[in-house]
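Morning F.,

Quick status update on the modeling queue. The single chain you submitted on Monday has been processed. Sequence for confirmation:
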Amino acid sequence: MITSNRREVRKMTNDQKSKTKKITAATLITTIIGLIAWWFGLPAPPQLPRPDTTPPPAGSSDPIQAYPNSPIIKVIDGDTIKTIDPYNSPSTTNVRIIGIDTPETVHPGKPVQPYGKEATAAAKELLAATHVTLIVPRVPNPLDRYGRLLAYITMADGRDYGAIMIARGLARTTPQYPHQRTTNYKAIQDQAKQDQVGIWSKHQ
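Structure tokens below.
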């Protein structure tokens, strides 16, 4: 009788071990299959959210989105700044200012161009340690090829930064990339040329 009981206990123990092995093997196989499916089957992780680029609501003529109180973290050069990403705070983003092109000072493949230092100095004078409003047009893609957010800059006093830089002769317009302020910027540049200021000076 005792021998029979021992056999039953031994059989139950072996059955339990067999079940445990099967469960462990099944879990391992499921995990491996899941990893393979993730590796080969799932789409890439979604990109960080960017400013909404959907068209304005029906009946609305607002072609832009404004992001006020954006702190200037760094002035990179006359047409590029770093600020808080309005849709991914507290991460930062570089902003390429729409409609202007200032002489190069930090381009790795180009020498410092005439009036480049003056343009950067003016940008620091106007923008450093301030808060601005980013004006982002509603377009299919608000980023340039380097992943920088494209925006106009409205300074704390309400002035258009791009227009000021063009008027001072420290930036050219970008007619090759038409935008909402192309006509206005061209008129300001024509005046700067007539006044022979900055890059339009005969002494550059």
